[in-house]
Structures are given as C-alpha cells and as structure tokens.
Amino acid sequence: MNETVLLTGSAGEIGRHLRSSLRRAGRRLVLFDVAEQAPIEDGEDAEIVTASFSDPAAIREACDGVDAVIHLGGLSTAGYSFADYLEVNVEGTRQVLEAARTSGVARVIYASSHHAVGFHPNTPGSVVPDYLFARPDSYYGVSKVVGEALASLYHDRYGLDVICVRLGSYRSAPTDQRTLWNWLSPGDCTRLFEATLSVSSPGFRVVWGVSANTRRIASLDEAASIGYVALDDAEDYVASVSPEPERWDRIGGLYSEPTIDDPPGSRTAT
Which residues contact 46 (CB under 8 A, 6 or more apart)? Predict the structure, then answer.
C-alpha cells in the first residue's frame, strides 16, 4: 500500500530519527520544518518543505495528497514565554489540524508530552493510566494539554482520527533517575509511530510513549491496543545513570521541568 506521511518538526531530534527509520517501500515522507534540513539522499522517497506550520497556506499546501500527519513540531521545554507557546504550540497545532481536516487527511498523530500530567504525584506501586486527567507542570505542559483538547475536538466535531502520544524522554540511553521509568528508546520510538500509522480506524486515543522499562509506572495498555510492542528497558543502563534524583523528584513530583520563571535555555527538551 502506498502512503504519504507529512512529518512536522522533521529537523528535530525525533524527526531526524523518524525520517530515517520510517522509510519503507511505498511510503513517501514530506519533511516539514522551519529549520534547514539535510538534502534528500539517493533512493530516499521524500520532499523537503521549509516553512512554518503556523502559516495556514504553507501547511495547507503541504497536506495536499497526504494520508497521515505526524505533528512533532513546536517549542520545547526550554523556558519560552506563555505567549510564545500560545502562538506556536497552541495556534500552530490548530492550524495543522485545520489543514488536515480541509485537505481530507485521514489521521493526525500528535506529539504530546508527559509534561501534560507532570504535577500528578509519583505514588510508589501505582500505575499512571493512559487517560490521566491533565495536570501540567509548566507552560509547555499547558500547551500540550490544549493540543490534546484540540485533537479531541477535531475528532468529535469532524471525525478526524487522532492519536495523542504522551512522549516520555527520548534518548539514545537513559540519563537520570527519571528516565529509568520514562525512557523512550530510538527503536521503540520507531515501533510506536509505526503502530500509530498502521492501526485501523483508531478514533481518538491517548497513549504513553515509553519503553518497556522495569521501573515504568505508565500504562502501556492503550499503546498495546494499537499494536505497539515495546522491547527496550532502561534497566539495562542503570549502572551508568546517576543515583542523584532530579530536582522535582526531591519534592515528590512525577517529572522534572523548569519552573515558569526559569530563563530560556535553562533545560533542554525531553
């Protein structure tokens, strides 16, 4: 089956990984980002679009003939202003959903985040469910909550299939105590997004994007229901991870994240 997949944020870390790992015969990728990207390689069935998804005309044109959108683009956790998050992560996501709707795109996969529920307590022995109610830990988290709400609206009002992936910490290997439970390995990242593209008629879903970590507290039931099989475990790297807790771990929160007063660049995206 031939398909065309639009990948926003394709110049980012996960975007670059998926650009390579989602390649297969019969699949064409539209690589959409404001940043410069590596040229098309020999044999790579892809198109590069340099534009902002906040530009309605640009994202609408990019959606023409597309079967699915993986919306990774947006501002990260690096301490941007609330106005910045509203403009890019909220209004930009609305533009992506609207372009998908008006272009007849069947499915959008939205990159949400564990920061959307980051102020829920970490209770030993408990499992964090798939549809945990929003409790954001930052303005970034708020923007992801609104993105999920927009996705729900576009499904209920217009019938658009949308899968919201509450991504954990994507890394080549876990780096701190938090990532021992919420690590998403490169291999599992590919397996997860392949599942979001291949599941039949998903409707509206919220799934956790983490690996099969021994210390995982997030449910993978909903992710498994769309065909995701996680294979990697952060415990394999435990000897190389610092025993010191992250700042928010010390006060009982699930996740670590800059406060709303931290300056830009104080923490990299997770």
Answer: 19, 28, 29, 30, 31, 40
The owner of tokens 């807790």 is: 245
pTM: 0.91
Is the CB of residue 265 less than 8 Å from the CB of residue 79?
yes
Q: Which domains, and CATH codes, for the chain?
A: 3-251 (3.40.50.720)
266: pLDDT strictly greater than 60: no
User: What is the pLDDT confidence band of residue 246, given thresholds at 50, 70 and 90?
Assistant: low
Which residues are known to be catalytic? 140
Whose tokens are 């996740």? That residue is 255
Q: Residue 164: phi, psi to the nearest 5?
A: -95, 120
Kindly give, in sequence order, each residue whose CB lies less than 8 Å from that of residue 162, ignoring residues fewer than 6 positions away.
97, 107, 108, 109, 110, 151, 152, 154, 155, 204, 205
Alpha helices in 80-185 (DSSP H): 82-85, 92-103, 139-158, 179-182
Of 48, 221, 72, 67, nearest in space to 132 by CA: 221
What do you get for the CA distance between the two ends of the chain, in Å?
A: 34
What are the C-alpha distances in Å from 56 to residues 17, 100, 101, 153, 214?
26, 11, 12, 19, 43
